[in-house]
Amino acid sequence: MITNPELNIWEHSATVRELYAARARGEQEMDAAAQAADILAPLLRPGMSLLDAGCGSGYYYWSFLRRGLEIEYYGIDYSPTLIRIGRRFMPLSGLNPERLRAAAIEDIRSRFGAVLCFNTLSWCPDFRLPLERLCRAAEKYILIRTNLHDRTVYRWEIDGYLDEGYNHLKAYWNIYALNEVTRFMEDEGFEVETIVDRRTGGDMELVVGKPYYWKILLGRRRNG
Questions:
Q1: Which residues, in sequence order, are CB contacts of 204 under 8 Å at separation 6+?
Q2: Is there a contact between 172 and 154 (Cβ–Cβ < 8 Å)?
Q3: pLDDT in tens, 185-217
């Protein structure tokens, strides 16, 4: 449930809005979206349903199309503004705008053949509840990219790059312990593989001045 969008940093960045609109128009392909589609391409059957949790404007769908993947794509995001952008522009890809909706990961109740969650979990208060929902929604595969390192560090800090009048807003910029997240997914019934992030090569990068150690986890459901 979107309780108060005014407190959501993703509602207050002109740079993000412009970027997500361009991507929704198919004008550029994000490196992470390309890698996600490349990883999932040999796994997804035609017609399989996929939930993109934290979809922004839904632009990952373009990467699936570029690889000839005929899937039933659904996207949710915590930002109503980004969903409105997706509903405006993603029909250029042939996607039904009703496939995109504003919702929190914690509200997921349906199941999908595969679940994708890139660049989202580190902005949650903790990984456990949203990851539990994601795992239980995934019938066969779950693919995650988030900030994973040696130990968990919770960070509640300002963004500093928002629209004028909103730079006082804070968000979570968490780092999660790789072994804790992996074990959690295993306990939810998945065989988990760690994949090197293609864009960063596994090196740390700064996101608005904050350290990110991007790693990708592919979970295959046991007996799925």
A1: 211, 212, 213
A2: yes
A3: 999 999 999 999 999 999 999 999 999 999 999
pLDDT of residue 1: 47
pLDDT value of residue 6: 73
| DSSP letter for each residue of 112-130 | EEEEEEES-GGGSS-SHHH
Q: At what angle do helices 178-187 and 128-137 cross, to 10 degrees?
A: 40
Under the banding of pLDDT at 50, 70 and 90, the label for residue 223 is confident
Tens-digit pLDDT profile for residues 25-56: 999 899 999 999 999 999 999 999 999 999 99
The residue written with tokens 């312990």 in the block is: 177
Measured distance CA(53)–CA(117) in Å, rounded = 5
Distance of CA 143 to the CA centre of its chain: 9
Nearest to 141 by CA among 68, 191, 104: 191
Query: If you search the block for the tokens 């992030």, which residue do you land on?
Result: 197
Asked if residue 73 lies in contact with residue 95, where contact means CB atoms within 8 angstroms, the answer is yes
What stretch of H or E contains 172? Answer: strand 170-172
- Please report the domains of the chain, with CATH numbers, ordered by start residue: 5-221 (3.40.50.150)
Distance CA 109, CA 127 (A): 17
